[in-house]
Every structure is written in structure tokens, then in C-alpha cells.
Amino acid sequence: MVRETVGTEPPGGDVVGAFYDAYNAGNATAAAALYADDGWHEEAHNGARRAGRQALREGLERFFAFLPDARWERREQIAAGASVAVVYTLTGHLGIDLKGAPTKGRPITLDGIHVFEIADGAIVGTRDYWDPTAFGRQIATTPATGTGAREPGA
């Protein structure tokens, strides 16, 4: 159960709930369709950004191959105006080997925060804040200073 902390539902109804439903179903097309035509997603740790539904869908398809059983648990949601912040825990198992190391099947657990901007019932943009150092420790293919990976954020 998500703990609603502050504010009210942003304009557009429960687009945030639909976002996590699509993510947890591994449905890149449904997730990308929730964004405005020129919607964007940014990885806060490195500034990598995808814009437009096609780029978002393609990025998510790669992500779901990377972590095919990905599951986001919404722990807390804070809404203020047209912005929503969601504290989440992402779990799953790697679907590939990374950098030649046998990492396929390795479990991953990451805490993070998604920040949504919503207008006219669509997601205008999302920023994903997660710790690449924590990810690096879990895959253990690089020193604990991080992987430089653009994943796992979608």
C-alpha cells in the first residue's frame, strides 16, 4: 500500500498509478503512452535523457531485457500541484551478463525516487534518482565507486 503523504492527486487522475502498473507489467508501449508527445525521462545521476514516446518505449524495452522481472514497490507518494514524488524500491534479477561477467540472474534491490511532472492528464517528464554505487556493489563487476552504467533507470 502506498502511503499518501501530502497534497492531492495532480491534474489528470492516477497517471502515476498507471505508470507503475505498466512498469510492473513490463509493458514499454503502455508506459510510453502515458507521456505527452514530447515527454521525457532523465536519469538524475548522469543526466542521460530520452525524449518522445518512441525513444521512451525503446529505452524501456532495453531496460526490461536488462531486468526482465523488474518490480517497483511504491512506498510513499507526495503530490504538490502538478508534481508528484514517489519513493520506491526496485527489485528484480539481471537478464544479461554485464561486461563479460556472469551476472545474469543476479538479484538487484535499489531504492530510488521518481519525480513526475504532469499536465493535461499526461506525464510531461520524469526524473529518476537512484544510486549507481549501490547498483555497482550488487553486480560486483567494478569497484564500489560505481559502474558508470546508464541502467537500471528507465
UniProtKB/TrEMBL annotation:
* Pfam families, sorted: SnoaL_2
Q: Which portions of this protein are annotated as coiled-coil regions?
A: none
Q: Which residues form the SnoaL-like domain?
A: 16-124
InterPro entries in alphabetical order: NTF2-like_dom_sf, SnoaL-like
What Gene3D superfamilies does its record include?
Answer: 3.10.450.50
What's the name of the protein? Ester cyclase
